[in-house]
Queue: 3 jobs
Job 1
Amino acid sequence: MAPLRDLDFFTDPSVSDDPYPWIEQMRASGPVARESHHDAVVVTGFEEAVDIYSRAEDFSNIACVGGPVVPLTFSPQGDDVSEAIAAHRGSFVLSDYFITFDGDDHRAHRNIMMKLLTPKRLKANEVFVRRFAGDLIDALPDPTRCELINDYSQPLATMVIADLLGVPEEDQAELLDKILPAPGTMGADQPHDPFAYFEEAFTAYLHDRRRNPRDDMLTQLANSLLPDGSDPGVPALVRIASFLFIAGQDTSAKLLATGVRLLGENAELQRELRAERAAIPAFFEEVLRYESPTKSDFRLARRTTSVGSVEIKAGTHVMISLAGANRDPRQFSRPEDFDFRRENVRTHLAFGRGPHTCPGATLARVEARIGLELLFDRFADFKVDEAHHGPEGARRYTYLPSYILRGLEALHLRLHP
Ligand code: HEM
């Protein structure tokens, strides 16, 4: 049998169902090693991942979404490909969105977004999260069973960000209905701009808010300026709004679902956490480490450099395996054990690090905590439904076929009101 590491991480659904054996075989070749299918460098070491995140001058974000699956449209020459990146910028996935920007350009756009996520706004949003989670539970057609992702965690994630932004309720279903396969979906073309269909709706919202200001995030965004005082223009603001709207939905929904799966599998763990609710945040930190919802992140080496002792040529795609770094035994003892009482539980890299570190982390954490608290409040107990997922010891789960995200497609539960 071919070694696992010879399977294609980017296209093989068996690797997506369980990426950890592949990751461990890569790690066996070193914390920074080369995979054979796309000539990418794979980083499974925690320290090495942090090193890359902190060296934005050497590693560009331009290919952070498509990674090596989307071939470069230039052939890298020499030890610095900065000019080629600039000249071919438009050929990269999401090249007009600030997640792929570097340096001052990135800072200027991120700055606009960070000003929107104020503590006051996030606090007000918490009230909404609790109320809407309660409404979703009330609306379950059968209070003794549910499919957690469709019935609860996904609509919760969608509505929470929609409420925060101020997207009218009547438009939300239509916006989500048109979504293309998320970047990273195996077997699908990686669309250059999967969020383009938002353009019309968000352009209309922003023009409307410029004319008729309200007390909402879209109004603040519509009137945002770049640090030099200039107007970034509506198209740039539209892309900030649409990225914010979509960025955290899948990941947040998967975070809650994975936590609930672990508790639905392990009655003792569920009892322990119900008895000590103050430990729920630590529990989700460990879920983020143990099953990182964004399992891979990407960089393009701008200059020839090295990480650890491995030379990386300019123009090389680098995959930061967050799932791998978060299970690096040099950082986390017994990494395969789920232990929310581990001392360094908050040091994981599930939200990235450095200049692009996830600005939605607070929101994701609040959503997961309140989402679980409501399930604890309203149900005396919940279990994984054996009729759908098989008996203990022989469970069947379907995972998203993705080289970027890690998450269940469905989680059926039996509920005890
Ligand atoms: C469990 C949930 C989440 C996970 C695991 C997650 C993960 C990440 C990661 C790893 C990055 C870094 C990307 C990079 O460095 O290339 C990132 C960036 C980002 N995330 Fe999240 N995220 C989550 C939730 C959210 C939410 C709820 C929002 C929106 C409110 C959000 C908005 C963003 C944005 C806008 C960026 C780009 C930041 C930049 O480039 O400066 N995320 N996220």
Job 2
Amino acid sequence: MKIKTRFAPSSTGCLHIGSVRTALYSWLFAQRYHGSFILRIEDTDIKRSNNEYIKNIINTLKWLGIMWDEGPYLQSDRLTLYKDKITEMLDLGHAYKCYCSIDRLKKLRLQQISCGLKPSYDRKCRYNKISSNDQDYVIRFKNPLSGQVIFDDKIRGEIIFNNSELDDLVIQRRNGIPTYNFCVVIDDLDMEITHVIRGEDHINNTPRQINILKSLNAYIPHYAHVSMVINHDKSNFSKRKNACNVLEYKNQGFLKESILNSVLRLGWSYHNQEIFTIDEMKKKFSLRHVSKSPSEFNFQKLLWLNHYYLNHIPIDNFLINQLKKNLQKIDIKYSNDMNFTKIIDLMRSRCNTIQDLAIQSRFFFEEITILNIDVIKKYLFNKHNMILQFTYDKLSIIKDWNSSNIVDILKSMSKKFSIVLKNIFMLLRISITGSETSPNISVIMEILGKIKTLCRIKKILKIS
Ligand SMILES: [Zn+2]
């Protein structure tokens, strides 16, 4: 039997870390066993569904490279199929129309709660055959009254539910739209899904879905319920604390590789390996090693991973274009004749994200407009002006502008004025980058070029 998995998000929100993990696990599982992976969007909740969310789902998966073999299917396009199945179930006596008013159901619920009972539908319309032309009804599934539903969860092991605890599930609402739980079952059946990998919040739906499948004499897929994702401080994964929209990480200059690794390792491990290539993920992923416990999302670890990838991927057009995009985002105008490769090579080891890289490299692209006089004064020492002027003159006669020639000049200045080299470096660093910290200043001067470097030194000469 060909393995078939699916990812079935609802289009009522952006994809967050937890849902991306479900997508990744489902995709990897299909990849590992040469199966296929289906994208299906659950958009039957008309009030809360939104096309923007559908776009977000598709764009997030595309960005991460979690590509589907079939789909995206929209449940709203498949209503006829669900309706036909519902008619079939009514005909076979597996479902019935419930004419109970909302008011009656509300009262029943309050009554049950006040008696300390778990609220559930009392099956009034299942036992009392009503023939009515009233269109105000829901359709309910006739859940078996006795026996058990047992399934072997691929992550959690055997899970048992007593049918006596399950009420008769609504499969079609008053507005004629089939319910989520029903559509899911029919879709999984129709699309021949073999493995349903999803969040643990669906565990309670599973026995009901299995009962529906059994009533249709259908194949029962394997189920794997992934634990929930919590914050590093053990609090619930809240939308406020983390980017609830994974695509937001892309905007912040994260690389897809670090998101994939971070998400993969939420509850899955393989010996002590921390970092996986996509190919390794596909070869090594298994449901057996997925943890039952809640998984911690650690933003610091994501930063660490992103730093790793930022420093290990080749400096090619992709990275250069990403830097340019991030420069644009912070309104920095760049000229294409700057040596982007050298800038990235010099700066990336101090950056966690491409956004960082843009911010920290800004002095290459724009003039230092706000010089902090206090910072400058801190490093001014006796005769600094004369030394800077001398250095300026010497630098201006360099013919071959490279860092080694620059360092030679600076060394000679250090000797001539008996000042430690690092103080001369600091003077130039402040003049050229506007900051007290930077990578090797002579390399910066080389990349910046002779004209711009001398211009910036001259500016300092004027104000100090
Ligand atoms: Zn009823």
Job 3
Amino acid sequence: MVRDELLRLRASAESEAATLARDLQALFTASRDSNADDEHDPEGATIGFERAQLTALLAAARERMAEVDEALRRVDDGTYGICERCGRPIAEERLTARPFARHCIACA
Ligand SMILES: [Zn+2]
């Protein structure tokens, strides 16, 4: 059950990362074609900003994928839902809100 939820999260993070990577690639191509100059062209500055945003979003999506993978590993280990710091069970509500949480609320 938890596994299904995690796999679903993994898939959505993965498709998000793929979309962002594609957008980023398109942006690179567009900025190369227009030969935009980040320093002097206002258009170039916008592209630079957009690129920074997409890069940050992509990094976040990839990090989420890694977190979910880690959670899946803990499901296999039988350590899922147990705080990595104090060894106590992580509250149900917390796991519902953050299925890949590694620490209980007290330790987070
Ligand atoms: Zn704890």
